[in-house]
């Protein structure tokens, strides 16, 4: 994928999630509204979406990561995302 012209997503507190059946998405969709009430720029991003790959980490003050657990394990995409961005998170 050519990311030369990708638009960076500016967000002070990104809420990044992975979901298998949709429950984690439903939960994390409420968090940005709560953060905005405290004057923070926030949005929810699915880890599998292009927006999650193009976060402008230079403006991130904190981050929230959510992922569902099945059979005692998180999804592979969640493990990979956290490992790839551990220093930034």
Description:
With 89 residues, the chain is an alpha/beta fold. Helices cover 29% and strands 21% of the residues. The protein contains 4 helices and 5 strands. It has a 3-stranded parallel beta sheet with strand order 2-1-3. A two-stranded antiparallel ribbon has the order 4-5. Strand 4 (69-70) and strand 5 form a beta hairpin.
Topology of this protein?
Blueprint: E1 13-18, H1 23-28, H2 31-36, E2 42-46, H3 50-53, E3 64-67, E4 69-70, E5 73-74, H4 76-85
Parallel strand pairs: 1-2, 1-3
Antiparallel strand pairs: 4-5
Keywords:
5 strands, two-stranded antiparallel ribbon, 29% helix, disordered N terminus, alpha/beta, 4 helices, 89 residues
Most strands sheet: 3 strands, parallel
Distance between the termini: 24 Å
- Mean pLDDT over all positions: 87
Low-confidence stretches: 1-5
Helix content: 25-40%
Estimated radius of gyration: 13 Å
Write a compact overview of the structure shown.
The protein is of the alpha/beta class and 89 residues long. Strand 4 and strand 5 form a beta hairpin.
């Amino acid at each position: 994928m050519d990311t030369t012209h990708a638009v960076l997503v500016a967000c002070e507190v990104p809420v990044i999630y992975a979901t298998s059946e949709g429950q984690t998405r439903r939960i994390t969709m409420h968090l940005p509204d709560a953060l905005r009430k405290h004057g923070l720029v926030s949005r929810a991003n699915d880890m599998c979406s292009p927006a999650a790959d193009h976060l402008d980490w230079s403006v991130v003050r904190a981050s929230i990561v959510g992922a569902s657990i099945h059979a005692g394990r998180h999804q592979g995409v969640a493990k990979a995302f956290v490992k790839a961005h551990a220093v930034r998170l």
